[in-house]
Amino acid sequence: MRNTALPYNVVELRGLACILLVAYHVVGIPGSGMQVSDGSIYRYATDSFELIRMPLFTFISGLVYALKPARADQLSTFFLKKLRRLGLPFLLVSAAFYLLQTKTPGAHATGAPDSMWQIYVFPYAHFWYLQALFLIFAAVGLLDALRLIERPLGFALAMAAAVAACLTVHTEANVFSVNEACFLFPHFLLGVGVTRFRSLVPVRALLGVAGVALGLGVALHQASLWGLLPHFGWNSSVALLCGMGGAVTLLHAMPHSRTFRTVGKSSYAIYLYHAMFAAAARVVLHKLGAGDGLVFCAALLAGIAGPMVLEALAQLRPWSRAALVGKA
C-alpha cells in the first residue's frame, strides 16, 4: 500500500539505503569483512557512498517523523514508543552481536570493547546509529513539543544550529554516540523540512540546489578518494553537500520498484541483523575458498534475506516482535 501522505517512493528509497549499507559491511573496513586491499574496486565502490549512506537513512527518518510529530500533550507516549522501537532491540541485539563477534572463530572482532557494558555507553559496531537516532528524536521531539520549528523562521534557526553543531562538535569520549548524532542532525531536520514545508519551495528550485550540492560534494569526495585532496570526515562541509544533496536528489529520482520496496519494508530488521547473516555467509565461503565476487554477492544476499526471514518469524509472537524488532 502506498504512502499517500508523501508523493515519493520513500519505502523504495529505504530499500536502496539498506542495500548500500549491507554492501558496505560485507566489504568492511581494513581488518574486517572481506579483507580486500585498499585499492580494491569493492572498497572504492563502498567508500564512494560513505557520505551518503547514513545521511540518507536519517533523512528518511525525518521525512516520516514529520507526518506524525511529537506533541506536548503526548510527549511521554512519544518517548515510550521510541524506547520500545530503538531501546529493546539495542539492548538485546547488540549483546548477541557482541557475543558472536568475540566468541566466533573468523568473525574478526574489530572494534569490540574489552567489557560488554561499554557497548551500551559508547559507539559499538553499527548499533551506534540507534544511540544517535534516539538523541535526535529526543531533540526534535522537544523542539516540536515547544512548537519552535513549526514555522519556517524557527526551523531555519534550528537548522543553522544543527549545521554548526555538525561542523564543530567532537567529544573524545563520544558517550552515546553524541558526535554521530550531531553529524546526522541536519539530515534529519532536512527530512522534516521537506515534508513540512515542501509546498513553499518549487520542486525545480529544490532539485536544482540539491543537484549542484551533490555534484560539488561528489567531485570533492572523489578527489579525496584518489588522493588529490585530504580525507573529508563526517563533520565536514563536503559531507553535508553529499548527504543533503544526495538525499533530496535520490528522493525525487527513486522510481517505483517491487524489489526495492520489498527490501525497504524490512529496513529496520535488515539494519539490526544484516551483519550477523552477512558475516556467517562470508566465513563459510572463505573457508571454502570462494572468490571475492561470489563472497560479496552471497554475503549481500544473506545480509538482506536473512533478517527478512527473522522478522517474519518474530511477528509470530508479541514478545518476539517487541524484543527483536521493537514492534508492539
Automatic annotation (TrEMBL):
Where are its TM segments located?
12-31, 51-67, 88-107, 127-146, 153-170, 206-226, 232-254, 266-285, 291-314
The record's Pfam families line, in alphabetical order, gives: Acyl_transf_3 (PF01757)
- List keywords of the entry alphabetically: Cell membrane, Membrane, Transmembrane, Transmembrane helix
Look up the signal peptide feature and give its range: none
Domain Acyltransferase as annotated: residue spans: 13-310
Q: How does it sit in the membrane?
A: Multi-pass membrane protein
> Has UniProt tagged this entry with the keyword Glycoprotein?
no
Check the record and name the InterPro entries matching this protein: Acyl_transf_3_dom
> Keyword Transmembrane: yes or no?
yes
| Highest taxon above the source species | Bacteria
Q: What is its main location?
A: membrane
Compartments (UniProt record):
Cell membrane
Q: Which family is this protein grouped under?
A: Belongs to the acyltransferase 3 family.
Q: Which PANTHER family match?
A: O-ACETYLTRANSFERASE WECH
Q: What is this protein called?
A: Peptidoglycan/LPS O-acetylase OafA/YrhL
